[in-house]
């Protein structure tokens, strides 16, 4: 949803116009919208349902469709966007003028549960020497363990985390294997919390943007993060086995958790943001540290 659609492609790196790209991807979009007015409306009333209609527009029908939309609460969307078959990934980050990095020497094997994973997450793991195996959202843990991973990553994704019962149960099984490092981002953060006994709630406004400040509790340092979620972990429901590592400085909501006895941690925002702030990319290094410690403990 944008105000003005550029008529000409001007960036030297562009391969197509935004309109052509959206059409190729089969994505719905609309321009000519007063986005400032829309933003004010959302700030006052919270998340709203809407309808984009093309061709012959029937306003009453559009309003009826928007009003009838049930929302995403209770919906498991992760399995809809997940891959269908196990695959691998070996592509690193892209640097302007140097191109795409590639996996030079794999030091660690990480299994990625794909709930709608962002490519930049995978690229940052590859940069850190990880050979990645991506598995569908509903993959049983025995199949994951048969891949002999050094750690498991729980990706971001859409929908209501509480509706992903299969993922919650799988995480419980993985956490029972005390030495298996787990790292969750966004939906993965919420799923880790649910697997430990916490609850999630639908937010009135949600967090959507690239400039959300969060505080690291131990160091009291402030980091700027990218955020895109409509559900949050209920602070009051957090079990004793989890400690809070980060909080939002906008509303105090939970942003980071870590298990007290297991190599398991998660972050609500997007430390991989691309584009966006890179303040929290050290979380990927923390995951690698846990993987190293787990491997050293086995030798």
Automatic annotation (TrEMBL):
SMART domains from the xrefs? CPSase_sm_chain
Question: Which reactions appear under catalytic activity for this entry?
Answer: hydrogencarbonate + L-glutamine + 2 ATP + H2O = carbamoyl phosphate + L-glutamate + 2 ADP + phosphate + 2 H(+)
Residue intervals of the Carbamoyl-phosphate synthase small subunit N-terminal domain: 1-53
What is the protein name for this chain? carbamoyl-phosphate synthase (glutamine-hydrolyzing)
Lineage, broadest ranks: unclassified sequences, metagenomes, ecological metagenomes
Q: Which GO terms describe its biological process?
A: 'de novo' pyrimidine nucleobase biosynthetic process; glutamine metabolic process
Name its pathway: Amino-acid biosynthesis; L-arginine biosynthesis; carbamoyl phosphate from bicarbonate: step 1/1
The entry assigns this protein to a family as follows: Belongs to the CarA family.
Write the Enzyme Commission number(s) for this entry.
6.3.5.5
Q: Which NCBIfam families is this protein grouped with?
A: CPSaseIIsmall, PRK12838.1
GO MF terms listed in the record are: ATP binding; carbamoyl-phosphate synthase (glutamine-hydrolyzing) activity
Under Pfam families, the record lists: CPSase_sm_chain, GATase
UniProt keyword annotations, A-Z: ATP-binding, Glutamine amidotransferase, Ligase, Nucleotide-binding
């Amino acid at each position: 949803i944008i105000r003005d659609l550029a008529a000409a492609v001007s960036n030297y790196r562009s391969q197509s116009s935004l309109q052509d790209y959206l059409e190729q991807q089969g994505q719905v979009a609309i321009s000519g919208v007063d986005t400032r007015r829309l933003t004010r409306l959302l700030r006052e009333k919270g998340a709203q349902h809407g309808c984009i209609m093309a061709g012959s527009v029937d306003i009453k029908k559009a309003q009826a469709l928007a009003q009838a939309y049930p929302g995403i609460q209770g919906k498991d969307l992760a399995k809809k966007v997940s891959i269908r078959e196990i695959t691998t990934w070996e592509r690193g980050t892209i640097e302007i003028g140097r191109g795409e990095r590639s996996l030079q020497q794999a030091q660690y094997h990480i299994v990625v549960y794909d709930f709608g994973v962002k490519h930049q997450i995978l690229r940052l793991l590859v940069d850190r020497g990880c050979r990645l195996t991506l598995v569908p959202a509903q993959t049983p843990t025995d199949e994951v363990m048969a891949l002999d991973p050094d750690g498991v990553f729980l990706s971001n994704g859409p929908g209501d985390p509480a509706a992903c019962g299969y993922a919650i149960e799988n995480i419980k099984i993985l956490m029972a294997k005390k030495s298996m490092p787990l790292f969750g981002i966004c939906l993965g953060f919420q799923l880790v919390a649910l697997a430990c006994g916490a609850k999630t709630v639908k937010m009135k406004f949600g967090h959507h943007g690239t400039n959300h400040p969060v505080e690291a509790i131990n160091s009291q340092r402030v980091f700027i993060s990218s955020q895109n979620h409509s559900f949050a972990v209920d602070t009051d429901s957090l079990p004793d086995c989890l400690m809070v590592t980060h909080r939002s400085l906008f509303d105090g909501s939970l942003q980071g958790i870590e298990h007290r006895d297991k190599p398991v941690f998660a972050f609500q925002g997007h430390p991989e943001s691309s584009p966006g702030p890179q303040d929290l990319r050290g979380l990927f290094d923390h995951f690698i540290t846990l993987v190293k410690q787990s491997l050293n403990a086995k030798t």
